[in-house]
Amino acid sequence: MEYQYTDEELSRLHDTLYDILHETIRVCHKLNIRYFIIGGTCIGAFFWKGIIPWDDDIDIGMTREDYDRFLAEAPAELGKDYFLQWYKTDRHAPFFFAKVRKHNTLFLESMFSRVPMHHGIFVDVFPFDKVPRSRTAEKIQFHAMGFLNACFIAKEVWQYKWCGKCEVPEPRPRGFVPCLMTRITNAVLPKSAIYRLMTGIQTMFNGCGADRYNLMSTDCDHISVGSINNLQTMTFGPLEVAAPADVETYLNNHYPGLQKYPPVEQRKTHRPARLDFG
């Protein structure tokens, strides 16, 4: 049975997440960088005006232009208690996106517990790029990104049954041939080259007249250009946050059958192996 948070743990975790988000927003405002809440964070703002009561993370997005500026400029602006993690500031980080982590805290996820990196409590920061109008081109882009992302993660931790010793509690489903291709790719290319290829795949349609952005690791995070160009303000716990203009449309596209109280078995969390608030 999945280990659950105590009420005290979840309350303290929510307080810490709000604190990290507050600092992230402060830096964004200072640098004139646009961000917007996404995913479960958006659900929380829409239904609860805060973090979903059983949730344990916060996700925000930025267009590629703002995301690149955030990576370049935010480290010098963040307070001393916070750390902007991506693979160039933490070379073992296995994520294609960034995280703002809080020093002297611990959120040790089982999947990455052996990776020698910063494991503090975090807010995820995702880059959004334009997708092509052609569904075929979009599928090719999505699968290419998925393969390269698997290679990028595999540079730090092997998650599969085939072609190596699995380093996570439960192997992720993947066939022998994709695992072999991942091993070959990682033997030939350094991590920096894989990251550059991923970024190239993600950004290849940004100069076209596409009318949608997407987070390239999923095929359902579509947000219209108009919704990002006309962000709205929503209450989120003690904060006021930026959100896509047409939140309900975005959420219904992302979560068909969206409801405020899903069945208990669908209320998934990321309960870590170890949690410490410092």
Automatic annotation (TrEMBL):
<feature type="domain" description="LicD/FKTN/FKRP nucleotidyltransferase">
    <location>
        <begin position="28"/>
        <end position="141"/>
    </location>
</feature>
<dbReference type="InterPro" id="IPR007074">
    <property type="entry name" value="LicD/FKTN/FKRP_NTP_transf"/>
</dbReference>
<dbReference type="InterPro" id="IPR052942">
    <property type="entry name" value="LPS_cholinephosphotransferase"/>
</dbReference>
<dbReference type="Pfam" id="PF04991">
    <property type="entry name" value="LicD"/>
</dbReference>
<protein>
    <submittedName>
        <fullName>LicD family protein</fullName>
    </submittedName>
</protein>
